[in-house]
Every structure is written in structure tokens, then in C-alpha cells.
């Protein structure tokens, strides 16, 4: 890995074994983009990669050179208004009303390692040899605003992290009405755009389309990154698939309003922009003030989408997630939400917890409804004190009883919200986000606390910290069940109201930071009505998140498959719930519910007392299985094998780091009678290792399983002999492969 500056052509070359990233200082002092892709050898001159030509008629040229129009030049951080008519990365509104700026090169610095981003989540290094960072400083002479572009190249993998920092060194305030984290101008548009989109209970479905002339985008203006669009994009070559081919992944480490877009111009070049949503953003930068943008991560591969995802998985598992739980197998839990909803007493919880323990699980989680006057959705949020009618011994007493059973105890919070029917709101009616003289909307009868204000964050912190200090709480589920509306803070002046969305999420991050530092052994799981804020920003604080409120195994195939495009299995909260399922009312076999949930953090969402003795034994076996293999399932190398978006079957697998064990999950949605023969070509095995197939007892070399494939056919073809368990709808299998002779 290296970063080289070629002074003669004023060219920067960042490279490691996998990628090269090339930029040059243009003749107008701006930064031009030359190349991003597979590693190429370094040399002095690459300036010819900046193609310019004298285009007829419509182009406006910069100064006097008829071939130099920013409209046709690929740039690193473009502005609008001076010959480039595409959407810009930056817009600065100045005192005189102008939005024109001219940031020209000033200096550069290269440092080992990677600096932290103040107040924001970001990837990090553990020692300086893991990455190098280039910081290029540019200045605008009229406003005296300084801009620093940060590029960190990691030693391993095709990873480049980018962010931007502004400092107002002038005497006048300016307004940043757009400050994206990244611009990437690509020389051609021969890509398929792949996004993860959906809605509540249908998150992260994969949608693809070709890049076409014009702008296509995903984003959120909801205050949270949203169920609708995940802050993640893949651009893949049309010939690329899971196993091979070129692709670029872009992930924004941010949990608030965002935008990611591609603009294809008339000459088929593409501009990618990613960052805070400009529509909801207007940041006043006063003299000597700074603004740091969120980090955007680019990953390049020429080895297919599985490899792209694996690169993100490793990075986010090891150099985004932090703390005690980062590398540890996650506890198998049972959460009472779907078992009881709001209808519970301490005794009922203990009954469920006792059976949970008997089955072998390790953590019992009490969800919504334990605090204040919370007996339903309408009251209590903000009053983080136990409801003594339900919990006469308080949270501390309940936690003691759970611990006495031999399990850890976890608790649900929704720190950012309040109900009007709460003591908290009655004491601080002016602490919610609402616009003066306008009605304020609720979502689920709740209102959003103004987390842009330190005193509000502090008040919630005090309540949470008090409980964490006094009760044995080992896990927190941090929920967030509505988006932001009527966004206005009574604490900030009129000309700073455009900062509130961003300041809000900075407040959320600050509270997370404080709690995770003070209680480093507590495992945090983020949640926002399921996957409404399942993003890399959250992963920095909470190493796992509740992927979706939809706990149906068949629905989860698509949701978890899509989520795995960017996020590691160790981050994906996945539980076995009751059948018929509470979201889609589908009946699915217990083994299939577990077979899907294994590929995540694993747990239950069930009153296990309601199971038959046979089902209870099955659950015990599932928990034993998960304990045996969770290290591989959560930290092994994950491969998608068959997409649930493309047919009746789905499959994926995890391989241990030493390649000696592999677990394959195979799922068939609807049963098929007299079906064709089916095989799965496996991935990631050692071709020379002999593996024993747990279902058949047959041994196969890795190469056979990868190239000839694993046979998954229904050998009964619908004519089931009496001693054979018939296949059903929603069937599934787990194949365990263990090396017999390395
Ligand atoms: C939404 C979450 O996603 C659920 O799991 C549950 O915690 C409810 N909120 C509780 O209100």
C-alpha cells in the first residue's frame, strides 16, 4: 500500500495490491479524477487519462481554453455554476447571495493510519500499518473557506474511505447547503445499478437497473436512514455475478437523511454522489467553525459480488464495529415481544425465561412495556423507570431473578422518543421537535425528542445510566419507531434550522458513545421498527441490529440475502418466531425457521412454554447446534449461492477460516412433485480437502463440491415411502461439511 505524489504532472496515486486510485491537480487548481479500479503499475505520468476535447456549440469553457470545460472533466469534488452543469458535490451560499465557489489546490499531507472523525462513526485502524491517509487541502479565496479531502487506502482489500472537512477561515459566515462525502466520476456508464430497498417488514430487497441518461438516486428525508433505501449501492458490470466480474460498492457510514445518486451525462460518463441529503441540509459555518462530513466507503473488486460483500463484511466486522462484543460469538437470546407484546407480568416473564434457560439459551430480553405508564402504544415513552404494577421488584429485581436462573438479562429502550402521556413530556413539553404555530404529527402516538440539544440527550442518558448502574443489564435493544416530521428545534436560531436533522443524529451518536464507553460489556442491538436504521453508522456503536420486524422465515430469506450484500452475519439479528407467523400468518416448519435464523445472531421471539414436548426437544437441539457452529456462522466467510429473488430455491453458506468446516443452508419455498435433479455449486472450500457430508455420510473432495456440485434433489420424486419424511412447502436443510483428511 502506498500513496505517491508525482510532482511533475501533479498526480496522486493511491494503491495497494488490489486497487489504484489516481487524481491530478487540474490547470485551474481543482482536482481531477483519473482512474479508480484494479491496481495498475505506478509511473510518473498519467495526465493523458484526463481526456479533454473541444466540444462544439453548447459547452461553456473555463477561461480561454476551448478544450477545458468542467462539464466534460471528471472531478473529485465539483461545484455548480462554473461550466459544469451536472449536480455538484458542494454548494456554498455566501453573504451576498452567490453560490459560486472556486476551491483550488493548496497542499497535501500523507499520514500513516487513519484519523478518527470527530463525533461521527467511521472505519478505523488498530495500527498505523493497516492504512495510509492522504489529506488534500483546497481553498476558496473569496470566502476563505478551507476544504480538506480525506482518502484512506487500507493495506488489504480494495477499500478506499473518503470524507471531507470544512473550516471557515474567513470573516463572514457561509451556509453549506450541500456537502457530499464523495464524488466519483467514472469514464463510462456500462454498469448495472443495484440497490437495497423496501419498506417496513420488507427491508433490503434487491433492485437492479441499468444506468440510463439522467439522474437516478436513493435516499432518505426521514431523519433515519430508513426502511425504504439502505445507504448502499453496487455498480456492477453487466457480465458480473456473485462469482466473478467487476463491481464497485459504495456504503455511507451515516444514519440520518442521505442521498446516493448517479448522473449519466450525454457522453456516457457517470457521476456518483453520496452524502448527507442536500434537500434537508443547510449548515451555517461561522468564522473558525468546522464541519466534518460522514465517511463514504468505496470497495472495488474484479472477483464478483460475493467477494465485494466479503470485503465489506470483514471491514465492518473488524474495523467499524468496536468493543467487547466485536469478536465474540453472540449470546443466543429469547425476546418476549412476539410472545407477550404488552401483556405480561413479572411471573409470566419468569415462566418464559425459565423455559428459555431449560432449552439452553443464554440471554432473556424484556422488550417494550416495562416502564412508566406503558400498557400500550399511547403512554410512557421517556419515563425510563420500571412500572411497579407489572414489575414489583423493579428492573433490578427482575434482572436478579433472571441471573439466578443462569441467564443474562437484556432490556428494551426507545431513548429518542416520548409520549405526550408521560411524566417526561409533562415536565419538558418544549423538548420535542416541532415547528412553532404548526401542528405536530405523531407516529405511533409518539414524538421525537430534540436530540440536537445537549440537555435533552443528557436527561435521557441520566435515566439510562442509572438503570445500567443499578440493575444487571447485559444487553440493550435500542429502538426507534418513527421518522422525523416538522423538524424544528426551539433551541437553535432561525438560520441554523437546516442543521437540525444532522445535529439530531449527532446527538444520537453522542449518547451511544457515552453509554458504550461507560458500559463496555453491554451488548447493544440497534433497531428502528426492524430495519429502519440498519446502517453502518449504527454498527460503530451497536455491533448487531434487528434486521426486520418480519420474522417469517420465508420473508427473511430475501431480507437477509439482500442485507448480506453489505453487512456481516454477525450484525444481523435473526430469530425463530411462532407459526403461524405474526406478520404474514404463514405456517412454516420449525426447522426452517431455525435454518434461516442460524445465518445471523440467532435467537427466539417465542413463549417456549407453548411448544409441544417434541418441539421443545427440537429447540434444544437447535440451540446446541448454534452453540457448536456460531463462530463459523457469524465470523466465517459467507457466500450467497442461490438468490431467493430468482426462483423457488435459495441457498447460502459459511466457511470457517481454516476451510475445514462449512455450513450450507438450502431452502425450497414451494414443494415440487417429480422435480428435476438439483445441485448446488459450493464456494470457498479447499479443493484438496476431503469433506464428509453430514446428511449423507458421503465424503467428497472440495473441488467436486465446488465444480460438480452438492446434490440437493428430492430423491423420492413425490412418491414417499412410509419410512421417509416427506418434503413440504417451506422446506430447508442444513448441510454440515467437516474435513475428514486434510
Ligand atoms: C419495534 C421493534 O422492531 C419490535 O421488535 C419491538 O421492539 C417493538 N418496536 C416494540 O414496540
Walk me through what this model shows:
By secondary structure, the protein is of the alpha+beta class. It is 19% helix and 30% strand. It is built from 12 helices and 39 strands. Strands 6, 7, 8, 9, 11, 12, 14, 15, 19 and 20 form a 10-stranded antiparallel β-sheet that branches. α3 runs parallel beside α4 and α9 packs parallel to α10. The radius of gyration is 27 Å and the shape is globular. The model has no long low-confidence stretch (mean pLDDT 96). Bound molecules: (2R,3S,4R,5S)-2-(hydroxymethyl)piperidine-3,4,5-triol. The site of (2R,3S,4R,5S)-2-(hydroxymethyl)piperidine-3,4,5-triol (DGJ) has 11 residues, from loops.
Share of β-strand residues: 25-35%
Q: Ligands in the structure? A: (2R,3S,4R,5S)-2-(hydroxymethyl)piperidine-3,4,5-triol
Distance linking N and C termini: 34 Å
Nearest-integer average pLDDT: 96
Tally of DSSP helical segments: 12
- Which regions have little confidence, pLDDT < 50, spanning 5+ residues? none
| Rg from Cα | 27 Å
Helix content: 10-25%
Number of strands: 39
Q: Structural class, please?
A: alpha+beta
The coarse overall form would be globular
Biggest sheet features: 10 strands, antiparallel
Question: Can you tag this structure with a few keywords?
Answer:
single chain, 742 residues, alpha+beta, nine-stranded parallel sheet, 12 helices, 19% helix, binds (2R,3S,4R,5S)-2-(hydroxymethyl)piperidine-3,4,5-triol
Amino acid at each position: 500500500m502506498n500513496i505517491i505524489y508525482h510532482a511533475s504532472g501533479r498526480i496522486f496515486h493511491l494503491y495497494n495490491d488490489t486497487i489504484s486510485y489516481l487524481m491530478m491537480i487540474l490547470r485551474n487548481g481543482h482536482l481531477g479524477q483519473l482512474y479508480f479500479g484494479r491496481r495498475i503499475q505506478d509511473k510518473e505520468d498519467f495526465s493523458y487519462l484526463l481526456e479533454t476535447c473541444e466540444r462544439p456549440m453548447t459547452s461553456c469553457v473555463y477561461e480561454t481554453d476551448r478544450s477545458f470545460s468542467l462539464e466534460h472533466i471528471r472531478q473529485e469534488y465539483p461545484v455548480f455554476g462554473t461550466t459544469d452543469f451536472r449536480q455538484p458535490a458542494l454548494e456554498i451560499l455566501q453573504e451576498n447571495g452567490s453560490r459560486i465557489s472556486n476551491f483550488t489546490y493548496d497542499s497535501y499531507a500523507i499520514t500513516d493510519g487513519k484519523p478518527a472523525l470527530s463525533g461521527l462513526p467511521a472505519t478505523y485502524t488498530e495500527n498505523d500499518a493497516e492504512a495510509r491517509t492522504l489529506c488534500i487541502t483546497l481553498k476558496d479565496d473569496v470566502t476563505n473557506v478551507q476544504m480538506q479531502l480525506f482518502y484512506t487506502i487500507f493495506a488489504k482489500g480494495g477499500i478506499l474511505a473518503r470524507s471531507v472537512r470544512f473550516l471557515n477561515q474567513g470573516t463572514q459566515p457561509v451556509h453549506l447547503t450541500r456537502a457530499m462525502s464523495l464524488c466519483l466520476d467514472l469514464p463510462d456508464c456500462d454498469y448495472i445499478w443495484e440497490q437495497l430497498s423496501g419498506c417496513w417488514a420488507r427491508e433490503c430487497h434487491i433492485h437492479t437497473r441499468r444506468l440510463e441518461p439522467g439522474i437516478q438516486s436513493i435516499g432518505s428525508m426521514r431523519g433515519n436512514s430508513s426502511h425504504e433505501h439502505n445507504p448502499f449501492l453496487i455498480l456492477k458490470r453487466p457480465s458480473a455475478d456473485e462469482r466473478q466480474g467487476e463491481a464497485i460498492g459504495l456504503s455511507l457510514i451515516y444514519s440520518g437523511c442521505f442521498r446516493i445518486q448517479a448522473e449519466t451525462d450525454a457522453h456516457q460518463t457517470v457521476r456518483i454522489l453520496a452524502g448527507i441529503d442536500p434537500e434537508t441540509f443547510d449548515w451555517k459555518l461561522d468564522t473558525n467553525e468546522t464541519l466534518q462530513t460522514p465517511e463514504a466507503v468505496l470497495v472495488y473488486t474484479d472477483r464478483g459480488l460475493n467477494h465485494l460483500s466479503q470485503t465489506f463484511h470483514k471491514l465492518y466486522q473488524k474495523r467499524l464495529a468496536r468493543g467487547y462484543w466485536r469478536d465474540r460469538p453472540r449470546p443466543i437470546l429469547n425476546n418476549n415481544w412476539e410472545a407477550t407484546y404488552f401483556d405480561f407480568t413479572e411471573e409470566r416473564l419468569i415462566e418464559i425465561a425459565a423455559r428459555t434457560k431449560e432449552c439452553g439459551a443464554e440471554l432473556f430480553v424484556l422488550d417494550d412495556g416495562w416502564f412508566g405508564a406503558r400498557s400500550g402504544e399511547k403512554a410512557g415513552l421517556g419515563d425510563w423507570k420500571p412500572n411497579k404494577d407489572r414489575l414489583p421488584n423493579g428492573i433490578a429485581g427482575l434482572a436478579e431473578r433472571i441471573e439466578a436462573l443462569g441467564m443474562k438479562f437484556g432490556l428494551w429502550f426507545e431513548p429518542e422518543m416520548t409520549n405526550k402521556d408521560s411524566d417526561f413530556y409533562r415536565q419538558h413539553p418544549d423538548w420535542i421537535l416541532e415547528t412553532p404555530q404548526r401542528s405536530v404529527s405523531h407516529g405511533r402516538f409518539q414524538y421525537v425528542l430534540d436530540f440536537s440539544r445537549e440537555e435533552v440527550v443528557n436527561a435521557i442518558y441520566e435515566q439510562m445510566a442509572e438503570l445500567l448502574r443499578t440493575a444487571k443489564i447485559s444487553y440493550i435493544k435500542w429502538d426507534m419507531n418513527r421518522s422525523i416530521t416538522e423538524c424544528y428545534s426551539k433551541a437553535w436560531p432561525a438560520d441554523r434550522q437546516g442543521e437540525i436533522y444532522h445535529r439530531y443524529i449527532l446527538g444520537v451518536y453522542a449518547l451511544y458513545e457515552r453509554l458504550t464507553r461507560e458500559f463496555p460489556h453491554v451488548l447493544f442491538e440497534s433497531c428502528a421498527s426492524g430495519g429502519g436504521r440498519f446502517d453502518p453508522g449504527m454498527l460503530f456503536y451497536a455491533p448487531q441490529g434487528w434486521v426486520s420486524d418480519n420474522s417469517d422465515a420465508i420473508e427473511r430469506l430475501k431480507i437477509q440475502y439482500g442485507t448480506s450484500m453489505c453487512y456481516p452475519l454477525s450484525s444481523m439479528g435473526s430469530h425463530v418466531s411462532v407459526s403461524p407467523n405474526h406478520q404474514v400468518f404463514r405456517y412454516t416448519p420449525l426447522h426452517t425457521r431455525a435454518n434461516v435464523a442460524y445465518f445471523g445472531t440467532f435467537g427466539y421471539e417465542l413463549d417456549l412454554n407453548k411448544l409441544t414436548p417434541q418441539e421443545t426437544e427440537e429447540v434444544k437441539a437447535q440451540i446446541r447446534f448454534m452453540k457448536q457452529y456460531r463462530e463459523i456462522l457469524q465470523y466465517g466467510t459467507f457466500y450467497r449461492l442461490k438468490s431467493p429473488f430468482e426462483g423457488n430455491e435459495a441457498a447460502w453458506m459459511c466457511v470457517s477460516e481454516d476451510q475445514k468446516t462449512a455450513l450450507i443452508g438450502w431452502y425450497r419455498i414451494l414443494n415440487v412433485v417429480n422435480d428435476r435433479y438439483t445441485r448446488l455449486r459450493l464456494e470457498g472450500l479447499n479443493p484438496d480437502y476431503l469433506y464428509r457430508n453430514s446428511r449423507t455420510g458421503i465424503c467428497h473432495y472440495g473441488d467436486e463440491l465446488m465444480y460438480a456440485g452438492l446434490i440437493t434433489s428430492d430423491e423420492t420424486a413425490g412418491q414417499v415411502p412410509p419410512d421417509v419424511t416427506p418434503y413440504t412447502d417451506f422446506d430447508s436443510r442444513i448441510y454440515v461439511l467437516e474435513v475428514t483428511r486434510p
